[in-house]
Amino acid sequence: MKLLLACVIGLYSAFSVRAAEVRGIVKDAATAEILSGVNIFLVGTHRGTSSDKDGRFRMAQIEPGEHELLFSLLGYQARRERVMVQSDEAIDLFVVLQASPVLADPVIVTANKRDQVAGESAVTVAVMDAAEISFRNSRTVDEALRYIPGVHFVESQVNIRGSSGYNRGVGSRVSLLVDGIPMITGDTGELILEALPVGEVERIEVVKGASSALYGSNALGGVINVITKPPSDDTRTRIRTYGGFYSAPSFAQWEWTTDTRFLDGVSISHLQRWGDLDLTLYGSRFSDDGYKRNDAKKRYNVFAKLGYSLTPHQHMMAAFNYFYQNRGDFLFWKNLDNALVPPDNQLSDRVVSKRFSSTLKYRNVLSDEFLLQGNAQWYRNSFSSLIEAQADKSTSDEIRGELQGTWYVHSNHVLTFGAEVIMDDVRSDLFGNRTGEGGGIYLQDEWDLASDLHLTLGLRFDKRSIDSVSTIGGQLNPKAGIVYDASDHVRLRASYGKGFRAPAIGEAFTSVTVSGVPVLPNPLIKPEKSNSFEIGVNAVATDFMLVDAALFHSDYFDLIEAEFTQSGTIQFGNVTRARVQGGEITMSFGFLERDLIINLAYTYIYHRNITLGEALQYRPRNIIQTSAVAVAGMFTLGADFRLISRYEEIDRQISTIVPDGDVRTTVYVFDARVGADFSRFDVPLTVTLNINNLFQYNYVEVAGNLAPPRLYMLVLEAKL
Fold first, then answer.
1. Is the CB of residue 185 less than 8 Å from the CB of residue 381?
2. Which of 365, 603, 700, 709 meets the CB 3.0–4.6 Å disulfide criterion with 313?
3. Of 97, 118, 152, which one is at a domain's C-terminal end?
4. pLDDT at residue 341 above 80?
5. How many CA atoms lie within 13 A of 264 on its CB side?
């Protein structure tokens, strides 16, 4: 009887133990101002929350025992708090964060498909936040990316550390994600960065180096993850409008009009929450007369995001994005004396584009240790073009789905695994009617070998097929990385990754004529592959200086480039072997309690076409990027400088198509801006004057295309 009574009492006690909660407030250590939007994570689990508009947070259903909380906010030093909680207890915390002179260890999600401090990643990750994008008045995501170290553009194609060259209108060796979901066209394999709602971007994360072990095809040279703004407890409305004009050409022979060429735009966004339901609405319009003849454009963008918390542990999100653009198509100049005018037979060239995406995401925290999430997406890319009197249309639909699990086996051991499927359907005058399909499965294991030694191993298998192309097959891509905490202020890292990229349908099946030169299909084209290595160090050198340095090496196999054949036609083919090596160093300085921020970056790239024994096309040897931001009361001053060294090699026979097409030079671009914030006078308005290419430096990014001259823009933004 006593034994039975003891068992009953024991069972009652076990089931009557209730979880505790931790709550509190977060403030600035120096000013005691409340801090909203602080990310708070329960270390070793998926649990997390953020501080509200009053700086308060609450995390319930915490199991009894000792726990560690991580507090992070851009512009502040991350802080860890250990708490011991008892059953059925509420712990109140008062947390203060120190403003950081330099931006160290922001929380990222892209490197390992989960939330983590950037310093824990074995690969280099660059982060740009919304404040930088807004202050520069970046009208598109690609304009913002030009200021990230090691990144440069050849016209609209992004290049990370020399991984890419230039193939007009097709292919990308960088994978683009929006909120973690790939956004790559099903026909051309392009990244349409201008179609993204730049006004609703919370931050951009750029992972440098092969990342196919997690992200599959296209992540050969890196990953760009555009993360949209999260829902807010506050109702917020923002109206942003701007207008500007281009300077007159530098030389009289370039003047093709006496009219001043203007541009203007407006965007409106609204965020609203009703209990467990949150809504984001965004719309924008942009109009540009163009500084070149037949280069005017108009575009419209509509974005909506709806989130709903089914339970405290389950959340669903649906997103919709629509983009429309009608533009002239300036392929290349008539000649150098007429650098802003196209050839006569291209004066009526035009392209109309419509892009639509619909996304559904589901997230379920099954326990503190296990997170299940899935997503599905439909992405339609449709365009019609009139190029040299030849009319073409193309429509592609890409449908993809992914299911991912993340399991915290222990506080120092994390497993990430998942599967993805992709289907493409293309109806095109340029590429024919084509289909493609594929899928991948992946597994990644992260664990701490010691308190200061962290190891990552991963593997992904992908299977891709494109219509009648039989040379793709399956790809197995491993990765490995290690991070060593040499001290509280110094981290060493090393990584290896294998990448691959399946050819786009456009690369395999394009059939068109450009300036009298036929572009022929190549159904024997093979996927690209790479082996990439990196070693790096991240150090907080002083209280006001952060240094990150890396050496990188990539070997490429069957690299895809557009080449002239012996018969004088153009065809996409595989360069047998290529190599890219180099180093990168970035330094950030923060002075006067972050009232003055200076960033310096230098990237050196040694690139070779091993097969031909020469430099690769459209790659610079040196990239220098510097920026400075100073705050003085209500005023903010900013400046940027970019140097991109002269391309050693471009298309050898480009002059057969483009007169003076081999003209190129080192790029020197200086931008400046000044802004005034009137919120201290209870007026929710900021005014910014931007001057891009202040010294009107003339340069080309791709053959026969003069880059923009000096541009003046006045920006007004009201936050209601």
1. yes
2. 365
3. 97
4. yes
5. 4
